[in-house]
Amino acid sequence: MSTTDRVASRVSLAEAQALFAPQVTYLDTASAGLPPSTVTMALEQALAEWAAGRATPHGYDAAVTEARARFARLVGVDAEDVAVGAQTSVFSGQVAASLPPDAEVVAAEEDFTSVLFPFLARQGARVRLVPLSRVADAVSTRTALVAVSAVQSADGAVADLDAIAQAAAACGARTYIDVTQACGWLPFDASRFDYVVCSAYKWLLCPRGAAFLYVRPSRRDELPPVNACWYAGEDVWSSVYGGPLRLASSARRFDVSPAWLAWAGAVPALRLIDQVGVETIYGYDVALANRFRAGLGLPPGESAIVSVKGVPAGTCDRLRAAGIRTSVRAGCLRVSFHLYNTPADVDQVLAALA
């Protein structure tokens, strides 16, 4: 898509909000995003095609290709450097398998376990868990890899990605960044890092079952294709039987066979995020979160996720009964704001908490 096409297809926040119809006050995108009507219509059409016997495996290739390209554009990289799959933990395991014996991995001690477990399970690896604020400082010439989420799932803390990138580069360490809780609201340049993973069912509004892996081109040959499958072949539909190994020369060699229906819904979701613009969404989401923080007497922050400590037990259930959807993580109330939310949503949850 050219720059002219992108400008012509811009969608305002108001136009985007008209595509959503939640029946509750939904403040839990950090658990799962809501689909716009364009996604539900695409899924309904895909289901109808399947039920009618008209769907074919080949027919989903166009959706996977477009989704790959749209994600690549959102994070500022080439589509040929992006692999597709279903879960980030699969990609984490792939990166863990690339580590040499006795490799040191620096990670945030409070991070989501889909980031941590594959490296903790890697035989021989030495995983140093430190507070998020100390990740960059913990990197040394002994460090083989820094693995961290750009935004923490539990409390929305935003990692100092500039400091981490600089520390890793200075020490010759590779970087692995999980942007599942960031991509879709936080502007992010994946090309600064070696590996970037994203499950798209949260802030990118896709059905669960769509995930991405960016691999820096210079690191491509260092990553073993431990999940090699027919879909990772240079020519997919001539790679379904027999040897020899003939994987794609691009990052498609790391593809995992796609969950078809998820990708039918992923295309309109990613299209909408692109049309509204991540910079626009960032400003809007963080403004809502800071309106909420101000209402609680908290200082402003830089995240679309707010963690509230010290709330009485049962608060989340009480909010749910009032038609407000939130979640509890790490013993705190977690409230998250996205493009379909409004200032009225913020005021409603503040009133319910008062």
What coarse outline follows from CA principal-axis ratios? globular
Average pLDDT metric: 94
Number of strands: 12
> Can you summarize the main beta sheet?
7 strands, mixed
Q: Strand order of the main beta sheet, please?
A: 2-8-7-6-5-3-4
Helix content: 25-40%
**Beta-strand content bin:** 5-15%
- Secondary-structure-derived class: alpha/beta
Round the Cα radius of gyration to an integer and report it: 21 Å
Separation of the first and last Cα atoms: 48 Å
How many helical stretches?
12
- The unreliable regions are 1-8
Order of helices and strands: HHEHHEHEHEHEHEEEHHEHEEEH
Protein model, in words:
A 7-stranded mixed sheet has the order 2-8-7-6-5-3-4, with helices on both faces. A 3-stranded antiparallel sheet has the order 9-12-11, with helices on one face. The chain is α/β, with parallel strands linked by helices. Helix content is 36%, strand content 15%. It is globular and about 65 Å long. The protein has 12 helices and 12 strands.
